[in-house]
């Protein structure tokens, strides 16, 4: 079982399906199949945005933690995605809004070679609920940094410390 997985993807619409397949397989490997539906929706939107609005390299990143999973998509663009105002007549622009509704939290971080947009899915394990819940991190205003292992070139496996 790998707690971190990095999968390079082609900057092509066919990568959306490939990303969903990778996520489903990885979730089964790490024992988180109960998040498959939400994770598949989120990775579909993140991959579509990277392929349609950014440029390569496009890379899928997956992290497993005790309280859930994080799905990240890095690309070569430094343009940060933003939620667009809701417009029922719009033919596009709903993907990130869907991620916002499904994920416990999400964000995008820019670096010198592009950005990574990530979304977390956490679960209330004690109650046995399948509903997505907001995570309790550490109360600080700074963003979590446990996911930054994606910056390491060639990193295939990284043990993520439990908090």
Summarize it.
This protein is an alpha+beta fold and 163 residues long.
Describe the structure.
By secondary structure, the protein is of the alpha+beta class. The chain has a single domain (about 5-150), classed as Histidine kinase-like ATPase, C-terminal domain (Heat Shock Protein 90). About 25% of the residues lie in helices and about 25% in strands. The protein has three helices and five strands; from the N terminus they run E-H-H-E-E-H-E-E. It has helices at about 15-30, 35-55, 95-100; strands at about 5-10, 60-65, 70-75, 105-110, 115-120. It has a five-stranded antiparallel sheet, covered by helices on one side. Helix 2 packs antiparallel against helix 3. The longest helix has 18 residues, at about 35-55. It is globular and about 40 Å long. Mean pLDDT is about 80; it is low at about 125-163.
Strand content: 15-25%
Q: Give me the side-by-side strand order of the main sheet.
A: 1-2-3-5-4
Outline type = globular
Could you name the CATH topology? Heat Shock Protein 90
Tally of helical runs? 3
CATH homologous group name: Histidine kinase-like ATPase, C-terminal domain
Report Rg: 15 Å
Tell me the count of domains.
1
What's the structural blueprint in terms of helices and strands?
Blueprint: E1 4-9, H1 14-29, H2 36-53, E2 58-65, E3 68-75, H3 95-102, E4 105-111, E5 114-122
Antiparallel strand pairs: 1-2, 2-3, 3-5, 4-5
Helix pairs in contact: 1-2, 2-3
């Amino acid at each position: 079982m790998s707690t971190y997985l990095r999968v390079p993807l082609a900057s092509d619409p066919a990568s959306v399906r490939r990303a969903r397949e990778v996520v489903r397989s990885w979730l089964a490997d790490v024992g988180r199949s109960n998040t498959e539906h939400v994770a598949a929706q989120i990775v579909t939107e993140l991959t579509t945005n990277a392929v349609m609005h950014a440029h390569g390299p496009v890379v899928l990143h997956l992290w497993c933690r005790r309280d859930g999973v994080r799905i990240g998509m890095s690309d070569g663009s430094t343009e940060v995605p933003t939620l667009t105002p809701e417009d029922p007549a719009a033919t596009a622009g709903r993907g990130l809004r869907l991620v916002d509704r499904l994920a416990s939290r999400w964000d995008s971080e820019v670096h010198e070679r592009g950005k990574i947009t990530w979304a977390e899915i956490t679960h209330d394990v004690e109650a046995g609920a399948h509903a997505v819940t907001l995570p309790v991190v550490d109360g600080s205003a700074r963003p979590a940094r446990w996911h930054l292992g994606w910056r390491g070139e060639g990193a295939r496996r990284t043990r993520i410390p439990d908090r």
